[in-house]
Design goal:
Organism: Pseudolycoriella hygida
Structural class: mainly beta
Order of helices and strands: EEEEEEEEEEEEHEE
InterPro entries: CD80_C2-set, Ig-like_fold
Keywords: Disulfide bond
Oligomer: single chain
Pfam families: C2-set_2 (PF08205)
CATH class of the largest domain: Mainly Beta
Strand content: over 45%
Protein name: CD80-like immunoglobulin C2-set domain-containing protein
Number of domains: 2
């Protein structure tokens, strides 16, 4: 009768980053603790089994007098919008030995919002001649034109600042 030797620790996920953007390549490994027989490893992305094309098989490493085995399974794929759920992506590795051992490790990574350069937009508006503001202006100075400049500054945090500059040109 074969008595299994179970791992002392759960599976370890290595090689990941805390943030990914669409188009980045995820390349991580899941490594089991030493056991006999070897653990079977499976990857999940947001709770769904990873596509077989994403999996990278590694040779089992046998160590010690007992011949304990260490399993490693890689996961590699290009990040697409479908991999994010509410801005996060969960990568989970499940290690099993038949029905006697079942442990997992899960990492949650953020979707990195692409950094947008600050936007500087300038708009120039000449007041319409039939507007009330123009009539008031025209009565005070018949030889001037009034320009309103709006400068909109958008920052990476999503805040906007609007600067209003008034230019009066004398003719």
């Amino acid at each position: 009768m074969l008595v299994p030797i179970l791992p002392d620790e759960g599976p370890r996920i290595t090689g990941g980053r805390p943030r990914y953007q669409i188009g980045d390549t995820v390349s991580v490994n899941c490594t089991s603790g030493r056991s006999k027989p070897a653990t079977r490893l499976n990857w999940f992305i947001n709770g769904d089994p990873a596509e077989p094309d994403f999996l990278r098989e590694h040779d089992t490493i046998i160590t010690g007098r007992e011949g304990l085995e260490t399993s490693t399974l890689g996961l590699e794929f290009k990040v697409k919008p479908k991999h994010f759920r509410r801005g996060d992506m969960k990568l989970k590795c499940l290690a099993t030995i038949a029905t006697v051992y079942w442990r997992s490790n899960e990492e949650s990574v953020e979707g990195d919002k692409p950094q947008k350069a600050p936007v500087l937009e300038s708009r120039e508006t000449l007041l319409a001649s039939n507007s009330r503001a123009d009539r008031v202006q025209a009565t005070s100075s018949a030889k001037s034109s009034t320009f309103h400049h709006f400068i909109i500054i958008s920052t990476t945090t999503g805040t906007c600042t609007i600067l209003h500059l008034l230019t009066v040109l004398l003719r």
